[in-house]
Structures are given as structure tokens and as C-alpha cells.
Design goal:
Blueprint lengths: L1 H8 L19 E8 L2 E12 L2 E10 L4 H4 L2 H8 L30
Antiparallel strand pairs: 1-2, 2-3
Length: about 110
Amino acid sequence: MKLLELVTRSVPAGWARPAGKTGSGLPLQEHQAQVDGDGWSYLAAAAVSKGDRTGRLLAEVHTPGDPVTATGPCVLAGTFCSMRDDCQASPSSMRPRAATRSTVPAASRR
């Protein structure tokens, strides 16, 4: 739950953090942990909106030494989001203990 709290606190200024569920019953904020081989991974996601634009802010954490994180945060981002070509790693995301990826809707990058 702590990662979800960090994700929702990371929403850029001016963007809303809707809670609850979509019309089809999907949660607008969610978190999930899973055993992944010899380690674990944890994913948190929150919907964001501004005017008529919507998107999702995501963060994923893996056990240190996980083969997915050893290849870098942009490869990790490609495992749960189709924006691999837009990925830019910052020095803080290159720490060997964890890799994170957050996305802001393409409409906000205009």
C-alpha cells in the first residue's frame, strides 16, 4: 500500500487523482504483489486526469537482482506498458535495488 500512496502523491500539480471504479467496475487506483521466480514484484497504478485528458501513473518494484531489472528500467517499463520507445532513465532509477517507471499521458507532453 505504501507504493500506491507514493504514486498518488506523485501526481503532477494540476492533475486530479480520481478514486473509485470505472463504469465497467475496474479500480481507478490499484496495487498488486506477486511472487516472481525466486523474488517478488509489486505494482501500483493510479488514474490521473486533467480536463478531458486521462492517463495512468505506474510504479513497479522488483526484488534486487531480478533479471528484468538487471537490463535497465526502460526494459522493465516495456514489460507492463507499451511506451518503451518514450522511456528515459534518470540516475535515481538506475539504482540496483529497484527500478521504477512512471508515465504521464501523451496529451500532457504537447
